[in-house]
Description:
The chain has three domains: about 5-85, Fumarase/aspartase (N-terminal domain) (Fumarase C, Chain B, domain 1), CATH 1.10.275.10; about 95-340, Fumarase C, Chain A, domain 2 (Up-down Bundle), CATH 1.20.200; about 350-410, Ribonucleotide Reductase Protein R1, domain 1, CATH 1.10.40. Helix content is about 60%, strand content about 5%. It has 18 helices and six strands.
Amino acid sequence: MIERYSRPQMKRVWSDQNKYDSWLAIEIAVCEAWTQQGLIPEKDMLKLQSATYDFDLFQDILKKTKHDMTAFLQSTTAGLGDEGRWLHQGLTTSDVWDTATSMQLVEAGSLLDTELDHLENSLQEKALKYKDTLMMGRTHGVHAEPVTLGLKLALWGDEIKRGRSRLSYAIDSVKVGKISGPVGTHGTAPPEIEAYVCSKIGLDPAPVSNQVIQRDRHAHFVTTLALVAATLEKIATEIRGLQRTEIRELEEPFGEGQTGSSSMPHKRNPELTERICGLSRLIRGHAVTAIENVALWGERDISHSSAERVILPDACLALDYAINLLTGVIKDLVVHEDRMLQNMELTKGLLFSQRTMLLLVEKGLHREEAYKIIQENSMRTWDEDSDFRDLVKNDTRVNSLINEQEMKDLFNYDNYTKYVAKIFEKAGL
């Protein structure tokens, strides 16, 4: 991921230093396990505890070996004596690499959950603030019936909550290590070694493995990130849509001195939410690659390796950035309540069409007849630029059944908010 979209904490998780520090921690833990098994003398283990790698030397060796693990081991044993021979005892590259990757994924997942928690809280806070703020609900992009901004925000928050639940499950899926040798038989390191190491670094031993931890786990993790990203895009797209000049009910924050366009000084473009949409597309693409990585030849090939070097850090970095960005947008969201009311009146009362039809049914008309009457008045509202409420009031087929007070109650916006409190209660707000 490019520097622009990399935040410090997540960047640290996927740094070379964190990766190689994890490799060293695993190697040392394996040596401790072998010491418990009676293979490595205590005096050698004491020296191994202080082992460290030389990163510059590692880079130099890598140019020759073209192999990360052998370069790492040589750069570590360079600072050791005879005790260095115990490093990597009974291990494969994948034993160390895959287990370390699991550590990184768990750490990254925890950071993502923290960011999602902040976003969920921001959405809930705004939902409560705008609980009863009426705005036009739209289906097919066309005015339907009023909703409240609070309900829209509560809906988003509930989806984020589900995303966090899925993420928790995905973290559990990758929270495994393996120290099981070239084909997973423990031929070079007994299960006790694996159990000790995994316990030491906070992972569970993979129940069964071959040379690698199975990539359905990684696919589960990345596809979960993609689904969370899809939710972010859903929210961002709605904010972008409601920021259009013709609507202008919501706006993302626009700071003093900020530039919207290099050529048009008046522009206040929804650049933040557009950025979220773009990064979400990137993450979805990585999910496809993660799924493709599941099917490997035999006990393992390395067709997944090059792809994972890109998709795992990039998906985590991009989502971390996007969540944080959206949280900021929600916290500083500009709400034009007056414009919401204006827009509800654009169709001159047509939003009351269904309520009027239902009331006529309650008064004794067949639904088809009631529908026909209301549709006729609705089409006149569209075609003649008349007010639906006036047309209905003057329609003898209607006013013969609905009295003046009932008409007044019928055309009251409060009808659309009377159950909002119950919905919020259902949602735990």
